[in-house]
Every structure is written in C-alpha cells, then in structure tokens.
From TrEMBL:
Name of the featured protein: Peptidase family M48-domain-containing protein
CDD domains associated with the record: M48C_Oma1_like
Bound cofactor: record note: Binds 1 zinc ion per subunit.
Keyword Secreted: no
Gene3D superfamilies reported in the protein's UniProt record: Metalloproteases ('zincins'), catalytic domain (3.30.2010.10)
Alphabetical list of InterPro entries matching this protein: Mito/Outer_Membr_Metalloprot, Peptidase_M48
Length: 386
C-alpha cells in the first residue's frame, strides 16, 4: 500500500486555502486520459500498471486522487496546499499555554473540593468514604428496584407467603428485634416478604425497608440467631448506605459516558444510551456483588447489631461455615453476591469478643439470666412463678 504514499499527509479535516481565481480546468494528462472512462476502476488501472513500471502506477494513482477533488478543486492545487486543522505543533502550543494550565488547575482543584466535601463517616464501623447521594435519593432509586423485584417475582410465578404464615412470622419476629438496633427504626417503612422458594437460598433488604427472604435460606439459617446473621448483614448494607456509595463510585464513569452522549449521542441514540445507562446503574448498585470492603463492613455491623439484639454472635461464624459447605454442593443464590471464604469467618471470630461484650452490655442480660434460671429450675423440678 506504499503506492498511496503522498507528498503531504492526508488529514480528515483540512482547512482549504481561499479558492484561486477561476481558470479553465486543466486538461488531464495523456496517460490518464487513456483510462479516463474508468478513472476510479482500480482493476483497469492495476492491470495496466502491472505491465508498466511501479513508478507509473504511483503517478497514475496520484492523479486519480487529484481527480476525486476536481469538482471544486479542478487542478488539485488547493487540496495539495491544504493545512491540517490539528497539528502536533498546535497541540503542543495549546498544552504549553498558561490558560490551559489555569483550566487544568481549576478542574483538579474543583474535583478535589467536590471529593472532600462529600466525604462522610460510616456509622458503627467509622470508615471514611465518598458518597454524594442522600438517603432520600437512594430510597427513590430503590423504589424502582422494589417494583422490579415484585414484577420479576410475579413473572416467574413466585408466591409470596401470607403475613400469617409461620415462616413470615419467624422473619418478622427476628426483624422486630433487630430494627431497634439498626439505627433506622423510624426512617424506613419496614415490610417483610417471604417468597415461597425452597430451592432458592437468598435474602435482601432494599433501602426503604423492604425485606425479601427466599424460603430456601431458612433451613441454612437453622435458628433465629442464624437468621439474625443474614438479616443483620443485609440491614447493615443499608445502614452503611452501601448502595449510595456504589452509585457515587460510578460517578466518574458516568461523567465520561454522559460526555460521550453529549458529543455523539444526538437525540434518538442519546435517549437509548441514557436508558441503557440507567439500567446499568441499577445493576451496579443492586445486583453486582458488593466490594470486599463493604461485605466485611456489613459483617461487622450486622454482628454487632444481632449481638445487641440479644442473638448469639457465636452463631454467625457457624452460619457462614454452613453456607460455605452448602456452596460446595450447590451455590446458594445469596452466595453469588456474598462470596464466603475462610477470611470472613476468621474476621468474625476476631470480632466475637467485642460482640459478646455488646450483648452483655445490652438489656438481654436479664432475659438470659432469667432463661438460665428457668431452665435450671425446670431441671430441678421447681416451677417458678413471678
Ligand atoms: Zn452483603
């Protein structure tokens, strides 16, 4: 393809010099006129060229190129003398210009200011993180997700157990004990949905207080403390506003994508792209696995929460061990978004003394003491009355 090498590099956008005064069109050369009937037919040219020297081929093709521009530029002179719009030298000049530096400094300072102005501390864990979304805006997004979950369940023909069903009552009972320690007792409109799906081990708590438990996770939770581990973990994701954090994390990507929409989207395509982006944002915020950091944080907050609510924190590690075993046989759905590993169980065991301390500091000491006393009394055949 070196045959197409021109004396001047071709640039897609070319600034043409002023049109020279009108003059009669130049007569094509004799050699070119021999092929003028099929000037653009490469086959003919090539066939001829193969019989001539390589030099002739280059000349013919150069002249053909010139002919493409002959409508406005009969002799091709304007095209040959065209200057590129963007040159390396020009770009270098822009980069070196003090005003470019000022804009870059302002942009970086603005981004840094925006970042630091939106730093906040996560409750319970005390971690500092970047979050631009208020609880209200996350809740509004979550409303859409709630409708989508209900729609999906209906489409799959899944049955939501009635409020009076023992399984719903069990989940509601554990939730009732956890909510006062969630720090969101008054903020959310708590609602419990137990989906009759023995083959699905899954649970989630959407921002806004919508609790979904798929009945397949109940045997794995085994007892109320195990269930409190699952629910405490899910509530903790809300308390720590992990959805808002994830949406904030994707803000950089969104800026780039929206800029692209602005530049190339036009109207129709822009709308489709924005719609696609919206569903992607939902997917990122709700469906993809939380980051390891967020998972570990939810484990910690959930453990403290269930201990304060008088559940046995020792059951948390046991629950995760059961999930781990179950995942080796068949991956429970919850595990696809909550990867279990030895490290998670090890961490929970490290936090256990603190959780036990929390439990002892909580009001349940009297309840436990009474329960122990009652058990002993029964063993001794003594019936107690208050
Ligand atoms: Zn989680």
């Amino acid at each position: 393809m070196r045959a197409f090498a021109w004396s001047r590099p071709v640039v897609p956008f070319a600034r043409l010099p002023a049109r020279p005064p009108a003059r009669p069109p130049a007569r094509p050369s004799a050699r070119l006129s021999a092929h003028s009937n099929a000037a653009a037919t490469t086959t003919t040219t090539t066939t001829t060229a193969t019989s001539t020297s390589r030099r002739t081929l280059i000349t013919v093709q150069k002249q053909q190129k010139t002919q493409y521009h002959s409508y406005h530029d009969p002799d091709g002179r304007r095209f040959r003398s065209a200057k590129p719009l963007f040159t390396t030298a020009g770009l270098r000049r822009v980069l070196k210009s003090p005003s470019t530096h000022a804009v870059a400094v302002l942009a970086v300072a603005g981004a840094a200011g925006f970042y630091f102005a939106n730093l906040e501390t996560v409750p319970v864990s005390g971690r500092t993180r970047f979050n631009v979304y208020s609880r209200e805006s996350v809740r509004a997004t979550s409303e859409m997700q709630f409708k989508r979950v209900l729609y999906d369940l209906e489409r799959q023909g899944a049955r939501i157990l009635p409020a009076g069903h023992p399984q719903t009552q069990r989940v509601a009972r554990v939730m009732q004990k956890l909510i006062p320690f969630s720090g969101m007792a008054d903020d959310e409109h708590w609602e419990v949905f137990v989906v009759d799906a023995p083959g699905t081990a899954n649970a989630m708590v959407l921002p806004g207080g919508k609790v979904f438990v798929f009945s397949g996770i109940l045997p794995l939770a085994r007892n109320d403390s195990g269930l409190a581990t699952v629910l405490g973990h899910e509530i903790a994701h809300n308390l720590a506003d992990h959805v808002g954090e994830r949406m904030s994390q994707s803000i950089g990507t969104n800026i780039i994508l929206y800029t692209l929409i602005g530049l190339f989207g036009g109207f129709g395509l822009g709308v489709i792209f924005t719609h696609w982006l919206g569903s992607k944002a939902l997917e990122t915020a709700f469906e993809n696995p939380m980051s390891r950091k967020q998972e570990s944080e939810a484990d910690y907050i959930g453990l403290m929460m269930m201990a304060e609510a008088c559940y046995d924190p020792n059951e948390a590690a046991k629950f995760w061990a059961r999930m781990d075993r179950a995942s080796k046989e068949e991956v429970p759905e919850w595990m696809s978004t909550h990867p279990s590993n030895e490290n998670r169980i090890k961490k929970i065991q490290e936090w256990l003394p603190k959780a036990v301390e929390k439990r002892e500091a909580s009001d349940c000491r009297t309840t436990t003491a009474f329960a122990d006393l009652f058990k002993r009394a029964l063993q001794n055949g003594i019936i107690m009355y208050d």
